[in-house]
Every structure is written in structure tokens, then in C-alpha cells.
Amino acid sequence: ACARYGGSVRRRAAGPDEAPEAGADDGAGDGADEGGPYDLVLALTTAGPLPAVTETALAGFRRGPAPGDGPAVGPDIGPVIGTAGGDERIGDEGYVVARHEGVTVVLADSATGLLYGLFHLVRLGEEAFGAARPAEHHRPAARLRMLDHWDNVDVHPVMGQVERGYAGGSIFWRDGALRDDLTRVRAYGRLLAACGVNAVTVNNVNVHATETLLLTDRLRDVAAIADRLRPYGVRVHLSVNFAAPVALGGTATADPLDEDVRAWWAAVTARVYEAIPDFGGYVVKADSEGQPGPHAYGRDHADGANLLAEALAPFGGVVHWRAFVYNHRQDWRDRSTDRARAAYDHFTPLDGRFRDNVILQVKHGPIDFQVREPVSPVIAAMPRTRVAVELQVTQEYTGQQRHVCYLAPMWSEVLGFRPWGPAGPGVAHVVAGDVADGAAGGGLVGVSNVGDDPYWTGHPLAQANLYAFGRLAWAPSSDPAAILDEWIGLTFPAAAGGNDATGGDDGRLREALHEIMDDSCGTYERYTVPLGVGFMVRPGHHYGPDVDGYEYTPWGTYHFADRDGVGVDRTRATGTGFTGQYPPPWSEVYESLARCPDELLLFFHHVPYGHVLHDGTTVIQHIYDTHFAGVEEVERARLRWAELAGLVPDAPHARVRELFAEQLRCAEEWRDQVNAYFLRKSGVPDARGRRIP
Ligand code: GCU
């Protein structure tokens, strides 16, 4: 930004008591090129109350005199900046940005804050150096904004290098070793900082044999990654095997209450911090889908999490303990066991027992990253526990980065959901720790969608999900369309220019991308799984339709369709009682067939095909209509993209064009399988007489 705008970067430390001299021939303190003129000042301040720091520090910055320009103009930006009240600070990762009398100023308390401020200017582009801008103070809502890589060091025989990865190999690991060239990791750090992400877990939550060694023998690898990411304010975390003390031959048991086990974790953790002083902490998937955990020793999740938390506490590290715990060996004949209930049933009795450096990491929905689920009731049920919400940026159930599916609208709905009703706090407040009498927030976690693909994310448009994840973690109330707009401007600068005179495209690309992406998640939902019932995907890899694929399996993900109706009865009156895990008003809203939102109807109720939705359509007709509509929307998006040839560079244009062909094929397959299935089950023809195979 500085080079482009011919400015110079000034870096100085100024406390409230040492306002710089406002001399006519003096710029802003002790920078190298005294005398300006400069357009941009990036300044580190010492921590102090925000108004005092900004007023005194900024009052000293002057636009330096250009040769022959006469005396410097003293911009009086102090009072403009000093709008924040009381003794508020800029904050660790925060920054203040302003433009006044020809100088753009970014102020921060830390280098990371300055970096985020600089990326803010990049987002603003020309605007940052144009008209005056009143001071704005930005800082992240959530302190922890973490991406979990489900990357394996070894290539796993079934899951490959990256479990649920759709963007090629791992950027960290290759065939059993750390990559020789970590240039890409450094670039990744920069990309993450641009999105606002500040933590990364470098290996899969399913920790296999080789990956268990990252904690000890292969710690050097983790340290090398940490070195590359550190300059961008990104800390490294590690997924660990709960049974590591046994697996690595340290102790005879992994019992969390055993003294030797505690000593083992303490010693190992101390060595981790010797190698990586700013190490973030551990992520643990325990007693979940076959991973080891405290249950084997008759202990509970609090015992397990506290063991690791105790080892990390002296160094300021945290444990992300995952709440994704359920019976994956359920008998499908057993109608009383409900997977949706499991996390709440396991964890709410433990509220208040976790140490304060334990973060309970809860998937946003009660099942597993489906395109439509209610918000997990666990998020509102653990007031004395730090809670993080986990989103899936990688598109396991949403088109696997072969389909365009912009996920920010779904995430924004989750973050905006108010579990206690409209007057209460929302999910975003819980993760930010902004709930009266609640625990500190645990932040936002996303399962990464990045790999060694040249576009980072396989589908070039899936980058928008990575970007949106970071932006929503920073500012959860951001408008998803506005985030997309930012991403478009940063990714396709010509589109940002906006008119032919500046070499732009008159906003055509921007407009088309909004048409293609804004509601693409809605489109995906329409041609796939109806009314929140979930799954219906091919077992194993989870791509494409298979309506009964999981119906008679042990996984607990059923739709119960028969000739009369479909859906899961989770009511208290006649079903599994899951609705009772919500506080009012949702416990009542979801319980009631009349009040339950249509889009979640089949998640909460088993209804006849003739059940009439709020919009007057029957369930069966809704299934037909949405599946035809979804495919038509994909076809329109595909044609819209084709028109953009020449506006988008050739290579990504061709990649997306090919992917659209696959998306259309797959959407038609979904439409035909789902429609045919329900026509055959129900015997009810399409009221509009369309062809259903
Ligand atoms: C899903 C996914 C698994 C993953 C699991 C988890 O079930 O299919 O690959 O391990 O979630 O989040 O732990």
C-alpha cells in the first residue's frame, strides 16, 4: 500500500505523556525519511486508554512539507479520533484507522494490530487514501479465531492426506513428512491474517500413529510451521491423542487421574513450550467415533480435559475439547436413542467442572454440519464453561468444493441465533464471552478448506468461504453479502474499479458473482435434502445422493420415510424429547407442529406427505418444487458464469466452468433420486405434471 501510494511508513512508540513535537520540518517522530511528504502512518502506541493515546499520539503527526510547499499543515486529528469512551484500549489485535488532511493513519498497540490495520487499508483500496475518514476503532469480537486442519502426516488408506479435504494435498505435510519447502505456509499465514484468523491446528482431530508423534519426536516439524506463521499473528495448535502417554510408551495407562499420567503430560507440554514459546494448545477428540478418551478409565470428559488443561496452564495454553460425542454404533431399530441429544446429555452435567483454560468446542448443529440444522442446544446450556462454535469451512456435506456453496449466510444465521429469544444474547455473544454472568468466550473454529491446490481451495469460489469465516469470527454481525463484496474486490481487482474509465468492468463481474453466490447455499439446500431432515448422502465419502444410504446403519442419522410420511419425531410429547434441550421460547416453538419453522420441520417432526407448510404447499409438493427449482438455479448460475469469460482470468474461469458442469450433473442426480424416491414411497404425483423418473 505504501509503495503504491508513494507514502512512507512511520513506526514510533508514543505514550499518552509524550506527544511528539509538531515542528514544521518534522514528520512523525523518528522515522527514516524525515520531512515527508507521506500519506500513510502506521504507528505503534504503548497501551493506554484509547482517547488519550490517540489524541496525543495523533496530534503529533503532520503531513511533512513537500519541497517548496511551505510550512507543514498540522492536521488536528486527535479530537476526531478520540471518540471511544472511558478507559477503553485499542486492544491486543485492534487498530484505529483514520484519514485526515491528507494523511492516513493506522494506530495499534501491537504489531499484529498494525498488520490487521494494514489489511483494512488493503480492503479499502483507493478509498483509504481519498476523502477524509472519521476515526474507526476495530477489534475482533472473538479472541480465538481458529482453523482446524484435518491433515494427516501419513497418507491415510481411506481418508488420504487430508480427511474431508477437497483442495489437493496438505500444505504442511506430504507423504509422511513435513514438506521441504514451507514457502506456501508463509503465504498461508499472510492469507490468514488478511482474513483475520489467528490460530491454526496443524493435524487431524483423528490422531493416527504417526501424528501422535508430533507431540514429541516430530515436534521440530510443528515448530517449523509455527516459525512461518508467527509473523502473521497466527499461533499453532496441535490435535493430540488422549492415549498418547501409552501410545508413546511413557506410562502404562492414560487414566487422567493417575499421577504418572499427569507428570507425563506436564513434562511433554513443557518441552513443547521450549520449542514453541507461543504454542496455542491442544485440540482433543476423545471418546468420539472410536478415538480414545477418559471413558475407558471410568472418568468423564471434565477429568480428561482438565488433565491437559493443567499441563498447559503454566504457559497460557488452552485445550479445545470437542463435544462431538455420540454413539456411532447405534442399533437403527432402536427409536429411543437420538444422536441429536448426545452432546447435551454428555456435557451439560459437567458445566462448572472445566478449568478456565478448557474450551468446549461444539459443532454448530446437533448432528454433523448438514446444510440445514437447528443451532446446537449445548451452546446455550453451559453458562460456566467457555464455549467455541465449530463450523465446517471444508464442504464435506455441501458439495465438496465441486459445487458453489457460499456458506456465510448459514453461519451468519447461526451466529445471530438467539437461544433465549429475541431479547436475549445470541450465539455470537456466547463465543465472544459477552453474556452477563457467562463464562469467557471460546471463539470460533472452522474446519479448513485449504490444500495445496493452486487456488488454495480447489474451487476458486470456495475461497470466499475461507475469507468469510475469518471476517465473521472478527465481526459476527457482518452482512454476508458485504463480506462477499469485499472478497470480490480483493480477488478480482478489476471488478472493484467499477467503471470503464478506470479499466474496470462497470461492476458486471461483481453483480454476476453476487447472483451466482449470494444464495448458492439456499440453492444447494433446494436440490439436496428437504426441510432439515439431513444426510441422504452416499455413505463414506458423503458426495452425491443416496436417500437410504444411512437409513439402516449404526450412525444415528435417519429420516424414517415410509409410504405415509417422513421426518424425525424429536418432540417431548411423542418423540425423543430433544426439543426439551432448548430454553424457551425455542423449546415450545420446535415442539409445536404449527410453529416449527418450515425449513426445520422434518428435523423435529414426522409428518404425512400431505402436511401443509406455512406457505400453503404440501410437504411432498415442496420436495418436488424445490428440487426442480434448485437445478434450474444451478443452470442459470452456470450460464451466468459462462458470460464472464474475459472478465475473469482464463485459468480460473475454465476451472469454474468445468466444476459447474459437474455441479449441474450432480444436482440433476439429486433431483431425480430424491423426487423418484418420494414419488415411489408416497404415490402422490407432482401437481405440475413434470417428469419424475
Ligand atoms: C464427520 C466427518 C469425519 C470427522 C468427524 C469429526 O463425521 O465425516 O471425517 O472425523 O466429523 O468432526 O470428528
TrEMBL record:
Residues 457-690 form the Glycosyl hydrolase family 67 C-terminal domain. The active site is at residues 289, 368, 396. Keywords: Carbohydrate metabolism, Glycosidase, Hydrolase, Polysaccharide degradation, Xylan degradation. Residues 18-33 have a biased composition (Acidic residues). GO terms for molecular function: alpha-glucuronidase activity; xylan alpha-1,2-glucuronosidase activity. Pfam families: Glyco_hydro_67C, Glyco_hydro_67M. GO terms for cellular component: extracellular region. Residues 137-456 form the Glycosyl hydrolase family 67 catalytic domain. One of its GO terms (biological process) is xylan catabolic process. It comes from the Bacteria. Belongs to the glycosyl hydrolase 67 family. This is Alpha-glucuronidase. It comes from Microbispora triticiradicis.
